[in-house]
Write a structure and sequence with these properties.
By secondary structure, the protein is of the alpha/beta class. 37% of the residues lie in helices and 16% in strands. The protein has a 7-stranded mixed β-sheet with strand order 5-4-3-6-7-9-8, sandwiched between helices. It has a two-stranded antiparallel ribbon with strand order 1-2. It is globular and about 55 Å long. The chain starts with 5 loop residues before the first helix and ends in an 11-residue tail after the last strand.
Length: 272
């Protein structure tokens, strides 16, 4: 008989913990139908699992493929000792950042932080003069689409902190950056990043996040973009990469998410 060693046991426990947390964060039960009050529109559990829709009480709306990608990126930088913290810009209820913090805990990592950056007050007013691609966020149609989700887009800091605490994940390794990105990111006390995840939807939010955070991304670190399916977000990413000569290949995660790994060969963006 072959007896599992300590490393195998630790890996099994880690997988079980993170898999259970993923189910809890998405409220994915494996059932078939979900009715989202007050709209009472039928959603399949598969749509929730894939990140097409979110359960009305979910902590994250990004679904399993994108959560699995976060785990892949974080565990890769841990295994390969890529220096830096973890950060998400645009967090909604904070579920993805909770998952990041849980991964650090599962690996026994105590010297990295998770930065939770959000206005905690919804989207900024679109600056259509500078960023005409964001005009869609200023339209009645856009507001109607957001309202149609059946849950609030703006989630306050107190609620996000409370949700962290409910999982036992609110501690000194979690730091909050409250405010619009244009105000918080230029002066954020983040020295180095190993994984940065952008979920700001808008052209302005995406470009400003890249502009202020990408120089801090370590070689070997990952840049994840949640909203590449949106025209404004995609144009901001493509413009930034073209401007700074970033040629690392973009890899698709699912129907909306993409990521790339920063190599040592890039010279267009200085690492601070």
């Amino acid at each position: 008989m072959t007896t599992a060693g300590p490393e195998t046991t630790d890996n099994d426990a880690r997988d079980a913990y993170l898999d259970l947390l993923k189910r809890c964060l998405t409220r994915y039960s494996g059932g078939r139908i979900f009715l989202a009050p007050p709209l009472a529109k039928a959603r399949t559990m598969e749509q929730i699992q894939r990140g097409r829709f979110a359960h009305q009480d979910a902590d994250t709306m990004i679904g399993w493929p994108r959560l699995d990608n976060v785990r892949h990126c974080v565990e890769t930088v841990l295994r390969e000792h890529v220096p830096g913290d973890l950060l998400e810009a645009g967090v909604w209820r904070g579920g993805c950042c909770m998952f990041m913090r849980a991964i650090l805990r599962a690996w026994g990592v105590t010297d990295r932080r998770v930065w939770v950056a959000d206005s905690f007050a919804g989207f900024p007013e679109p600056d259509t003069g500078r960023y005409p691609d964001d005009a869609v966020f200023d339209s009645a149609i856009a507001r109607e689409i957001l309202d149609d989700f059946g849950y609030p887009i703006a989630v306050g800091l107190d609620e996000v902190r409370s949700r962290f605490a409910s999982y036992g994940l609110l501690d000194d390794q979690v730091r909050f950056l409250a405010g619009y990105f244009a105000d918080t990111l230029p002066q954020a006390p983040v020295e180095r990043l190993a994984v940065m995840r952008l979920d700001g939807d808008m052209y302005q939010s995406t470009f400003e996040s890249l502009e202020h955070l990408y120089p801090k991304l370590s070689a070997g670190g990952f840049c994840i973009v949640d909203d590449y399916v949106l025209d404004g977000c995609r144009k901001a990413v493509d413009r930034f990469r073209d401007t700074y000569g970033i040629s690392d290949p973009i890899e698709r995660i699912d129907w909306t998410g993409v990521f790339w790994r920063r190599t040592t060969g890039e010279t267009g963006v200085d690492q601070r």
